[in-house]
């Protein structure tokens, strides 16, 4: 293994750790917007009730897409084998594609768009991860 390859792997791992943290923060902000919207209709919920809603309620189902990407990142970081450049680039492309809010898009894209219209903190989290995804590894 060359030092360049080792250096590249170290940068990839750091990039993935940073991406994971930014995805988790974005997820947290989006979850908060959904919690607020849910509570406006159904009343206040406890943390335990919120967890059950996130797992099983249709209103929160769209957020599972972000959770699934976080799991992918975790699996890459914990893998015994080195991350292939193709797998790494595919993940980055998938995240870039995922976080495109569209008013008339698929369910995720519409709900993401609407959440960004309601919550400034979600807009800031979106801007941060978008900026990060344009940075070099």
Automatic annotation (TrEMBL):
Identification of the protein by name: Uncharacterized protein
